[in-house]
Amino acid sequence: MKKFIRTAGFDDSFDVKRGVLAGCVCRGTYPEVFMMSEISVDGMDSTERIIDLLSRTPVSSQLRAIYLDGITMAGFNIIDIEKLHDESGVPVIVLMKRKPDMNGIERALKNVSERDRRIEIMRKAGDVVYAGDGMYLQLKGVDMESARKLISITSFEGLTPEPLRLAHMLASSAIHGISRKR
Asked: What is the count of structural domains for the chain?
């Protein structure tokens, strides 16, 4: 696998009034493109916003992976990773430091609109698999070995790919005025 592949990372930050989705495309660990969009808190627009941002990115045809920090943004604005993979043609790698409590999430969704649709999207995202080193992954369009290689060559140290780390900082600064460490 080439060392200087292009990958994108997306993360969010939100408060009670608004949510921000931020993205970054890196070539290896070198940032090339930053993206940002507002998303609805507990809405259903995060998948479409990511697809839209990617479609406007000049290097989108060269992406080898899309990294996400979990499949929920701005509360329960759930990303349909199957749709994201199908429409972008790019493998999706969802990284998590803890295995989500799916039963707890389903219980929490009782007060959110379109509960059944959200649960369906979460279920079709597939299994959350322990990848070692304290990291859990959900994958679409890529196998575990390739995902681990992609993460390794796009991270400075540890297990956070640089595009995801930078997207987190950008989103956090948009909501809080200053980035919070990742």
From this structure: 1
Which of 61, 70, 87, 88 minimizes the C-alpha distance to 5? 61
CATH number at residue 146: 3.30.2170.10
Q: Does 182 fall in a domain?
A: no
Q: For the full predicted model, state whether its pTM sits above 0.90.
A: yes
Q: How far apart are CA 66 and CA 85, in angstroms?
A: 9
Do the domain assignments include residue 24? yes
- Rounded distance, CA 24 to CA 34, Å? 5
Tell me the sheet residues that pair with 136.
96, 130
Amino acid code (one letter) for 6: R
Q: Which residues face 20 on adjacent strands? A: 13, 38
Distance CA 11, CA 13 (A): 7
Going by pLDDT thresholds of 50, 70 and 90, the confidence category of residue 182 is low
